[in-house]
Amino acid sequence: MAGQRNQFRIIGGQWRGRKLGFFPAPGLRPTPDRVRETLFNWLAPVIGGARVLDLFAGSGALGFEAASRGAAQVTLVDSHPRVVSQLQQNSRLLQATQVTVYQSEVLRYLERPAEACEIVFLDPPYQSEVLEACFAQLEAGWLTAGAWIYFEHDSHKPAPVLPANWQLYRNQRAGQVAYLLARRQPEA
User: Fold this and answer.
1) What is the pTM (predicted TM-score) of this model?
2) 146: nearest Cα among 75, 51, 36
3) Which pLDDT value is given to residue 135?
4) CB neighbours (10 Å) of residue 170?
5) What single string gives the DSSP state of each residue in 66-131?
6) Is the pLDDT of residue 3 over 80?
7) Where does residue 98 rank: exposed (0-12), middle (13-18), buried (19+ CB within 10 A)?
8) Tell me: the pLDDT tens digits for 15-50?
9) 18 SS3 class
10) Edge-to-edge strand list for the sheet holding 99-103
11) How far apart (Å, rounded) are the C-alpha atoms in residues 133 and 68?
């Protein structure tokens, strides 16, 4: 495993306290412990048994945290081959049979036949500006009626425009990171 700087710690659930390594790809920054703790407090009532899609998975901190806290199925998607290799290694290390890892560009992955999820994590590189395109593709069958969508963006830039049927539930800042949780509203 790489040095301390290339590790993150799972903060809750069955693998609480486990440290996992990640490949230090350019722009990869695991969601900080404090932010993850807040996020998973928000999601506590719905994480158990949920189907989770972690796009731009990077270190896998969000997806592995969800699996540790009882998500039934977690899909990690990232485009970087070394990042994906590390995600697969961590999944084997944890014997996380509910975790599946895909190597793909996220927008291309979302073109495949959709599998509706209750929770989606979106943490793209800040300079990519792909959030709104991801939102549109997620609306093509990737979300259950009341799905939760968590996303991060550069706090110094305006927040992306949400689809009309998404309601902003929480909005916080931690330094350069703005992190938001939205909920898809069921069709009337």
Assistant:
1) 0.93
2) 51
3) 97
4) 15
5) HHHTT-SEEEEEES-HHHHHHHHHHHHHHT-TTEEEEES-HHHHTTSPP--EEEEEE---GGG--H
6) no
7) middle
8) 999 999 998 888 777 888 888 999 999 999 999 999
9) coil
10) 99-103, 73-78, 51-55, 117-122, 143-154, 177-184, 166-174
11) 29
